[in-house]
Design brief:
It is globular and about 65 Å long. Strand 10 and strand 11 (about 145-150) form a beta hairpin. Helix 1 (about 10-20) runs parallel beside helix 3. By secondary structure, the protein is an alpha/beta fold. The protein has a single domain (about 5-170, about 270-375), classed as FAD/NAD(P)-binding domain. The protein is built from 10 helices and 18 strands. The two termini are about 35 Å apart. The chain has a 7-stranded mixed sheet, with helices on both faces. A 5-stranded parallel sheet has the order 8-2-1-12-18, with helices on one face. Strands 3-7-4 form a 3-stranded antiparallel sheet.
Amino acid sequence: MTKKIGIIGAGISGLYLANLLEKNPDYDYKIFEKRSQFDLDNSYGIQLSVNSIRLLNDIGFKKIDANEIVFASKINFFDARSSKKICDIDISSFNSEEARYATLKRSTLINFLLKKIPTKKIIMNIQPHSIEQLEKIKIYYSNNLTEYFDHLVISDGIFSKTKTIITKNYKKPTFYNSIAIRGIIKNFKQDDISIYLGSNFHFVIYPISRKKEFNFVSIVRKRIKKNELLKEKYFYNEDFLNSLFNKIFKKNNLDLKNKIQNIKSFPIYVSKKIERYNKKNIYFVGDALFAFPPSFAQGASQSVESANELYESIINNTDDYYKKRFKKLKSVNWRSKLNFFVFHLSNPITIYLRNLILKYLTKNKKFIENYLGKIYRN
């Protein structure tokens, strides 16, 4: 008998899982998305390390338009104030014939994932308001629709509303005392991934297509009052954005201020801790399960990985999904937090020592294999 799977949220995790299920006749599925439409004009970038590219290639990612993807070979580290290069990491050393580290637009990946999913299987502008676990999982939706599923997958992001319905002691994500700024740059001078380390901030620039488009993302440490965090318009305020940019551009000599387009800012939230869930046949994936600081470039890759691990657990009827996922999350989380700390040092003496250590460690094959290889090679 065909098993039915409900997927709440049409982000990277949910869509990748749907692609896997689409190839398996033993399962039927539906995706429920609260948005009324997909934002496919979003040109902001993502990085995909070989752990996720290998999985994406299993569903045809190799055939994607070559102009829409860039295979970066190095991560270059610069001192933000002087723009002098500190060191670099050869990330191509983790590549294989089947998978290479890639940078691209998020919308490119979403478009690819959507192409193989029948439109009738995605229901937009809807979200659950009640869930009962009987013999099967019964879901009541906002438009009075009721559905039954054998498995329920929650992939509706870090502020998952479904999570508040399912878990009694829901722990909200916490503000990480930092703001992210995103934008697009045309014709930047570096073709690989460039990380600029500053005092209480860092920013990353990397290509997202072969059309000389580059993603700009900066993480700036900043404390914000609780009442201001609740105001979405606060992060679009021109004075607020200028204050963030002034903090960055006064401390580096790159002429970027008037070159960054489509600028947006948003507060960074992270999960407090990795929580265990005991609901039978109800699973969390992606940011709905756990969100870490965005300073290790693994957000999209871990979304793909978690969906793949869950798929394997479901079809093999095992209960080891969370055990495997938590082990990987712990590894990614502490690396993300360490990067965040190291990238933002402000004392001249500690900066000097950091740069010396980086020069040594980035050429130490054993360290690189342990720090990156254990994540990238899955």
